[in-house]
Design a protein that fits this description.
With about 160 residues, this protein is α+β, with helices and mostly antiparallel strands. It contains two helices and five strands, in the order E-H-E-E-E-E-H. The chain has one domain: Thiol Ester Dehydrase, Chain A, CATH 3.10.129. Strand 4 and strand 5 form a beta hairpin. The chain starts with 8 loop residues before the first strand and ends in a 5-residue tail after the last helix.
Length: about 160
């Protein structure tokens, strides 16, 4: 089974007053919600399946976005296993005056494909092409393995 699309998904939204805190900067939770949405849509586009979020790893807030900024949130599937897809999601803030991108956050979101009974189902497999894609694959595989080790009972 081949992926339907390996192209990234991009969402663009404006930071409105209701999205900000007392400092007129974007609430982290609002950004996290947009990033999760972009990741889920990237998975759906990739596999033509329904997905649920199972883990977020290595989420790094780099800089704030301010009221009036535009947010560009991009998700790209970088790793797959039998039922799981990992999406690298990057968020950038842009001023409407110059549209210059400033990276503000990135992280790795893990999703599981599900059927109508909420059971995991198989997905197409990504084949990394090129050194950069292989490096992302390896990094995501390492994150998944670490996550699985933390979940399994210790054998002390």
């Amino acid at each position: 089974m081949e992926p339907y699309s390996i192209e990234p998904v991009t969402i663009i939204e404006e930071v409105f007053p209701q999205d900000t805190n007392a400092y007129d900067t974007l609430f982290g939770g609002r950004l996290l919600s947009l990033m999760d949405k972009a990741g889920g849509i990237a998975c759906a586009k990739f596999a033509h399946r329904e997905f649920v979020t199972v883990s977020i790893d290595t989420l790094t807030f780099i800089a704030p976005a301010r009221q009036g900024d535009l947010l560009e949130v991009t998700g790209q599937v970088v790793f797959t296993s039998n039922h799981t897809a990992c999406v690298k999601v990057t968020a950038c803030a842009m001023s409407k005056a110059d549209w210059e991108r400033k990276r503000i956050c990135e992280g790795y979101f893990f999703f599981v494909a599900i059927d109508s009974m909420m059971r995991p189902i198989p997905i197409p497999q990504l084949t990394p092409e090129g050194e950069e894609a292989q490096a992302e694959w390896d990094h995501a595989a390492s994150l998944k393995n670490s996550m699985l080790q933390k979940r399994s009972p210790s054998k002390a």
